[in-house]
What does this fold into?
Amino acid sequence: MIDKRVGSVSEAIQGITDGTTLMVSGFGGAGVPVDLIKGLAQSEVRDLNIVINAIRFLETYAPSLFQDRRVKSVVCSAFRGRDREPSNYERQWQAGELAIDLSPQGSFSERIRAGGAGIPAFFTPTAAGTQLAEGKEVRDFEGRPCILETAIKGDFAFLRAAEGDRFGNLRFRGTQANFGPIMAMASKVAVAEVASFSEKPLEADQIHLSGVFIDRILVAPGTGA
It folds into this structure.
């Protein structure tokens, strides 16, 4: 019988090794897989390539990742921290120790969606003529300059949902979904942290992401929005 539940964080993140490309969902605090992020910090993996909308969530829930210089590169759309003083990751970037691929949020989302859809790259007018376009191919479409953006794929994806069932089907609450579904589609292994678990299959009209995209479910009530 299919049952994608795992019994611990260590089991949920099994297979993440040095050099892994990991996608992490979350927007404004919603849909952040807190337990999975903390579990990652307790592991010993290094040279991580992280894809996350706001990098500050890693600094908040897994500060040791940057303290121990275990992150090699980050793709994000929100880089600056909230504090006046530079954070660990900002200092590492300034020192050339951390590679940052800063992408406008729409392009960030579309690059991930393209990765899941098997589209290697696409042209967009967003960021054309700015520093973010430096080094990228530019073409004119209907009189508008557009830059070539490449798709993003992951080895693993972490996401959080309100509810899951044994088949891996997920129900999200409001904006909790954000980047989670497309990250799951663009990754080889997708791990969902859920607030509650349904012993019965979720009703069809309650399923926001099909279980075919989810490999593991970790029940973690009360640890995230």
In short: DSSP finds seven helices and twelve strands in the chain.
